[in-house]
Predict the structure.
Amino acid sequence: MQALSFSFRQGVPRDADLVFDVRFLANPHYDDALRPLDGRDAPVAAFIETDPACDAFAEKVEDLLRLVLPLHRREGKSYLTIAFGCTGGRHRSVYMTERIAAALADEGDGVEIRHRDLAVDGTGEAKRP
């Protein structure tokens, strides 16, 4: 399974099997101290987690994936890409991708994490201040 974050500005990933829009979550972009960070940074995670919808959404997605992952395997599908998108692909989508991947790490063959729009040069390396 691959968990992928992306920016809706850059388009929905063509290889995504399931796409979740997390633009409803509190946006760290508008906090000057958080803007240069990304969703893997603790202050950004803490900010997003203050949104009352955050935990409920994550739990529902985890439940859904725990239901459908074995069904995909049963149908012979060896790979599934789950994508989380937000406006810039830097904060909310990255946070949720990391969170869901961690929660599902022991489900089957593990989880590959990819942050498509954090990439500076296509290598997947995050842009850091």
About this structure: The chain has one domain: 2-118.
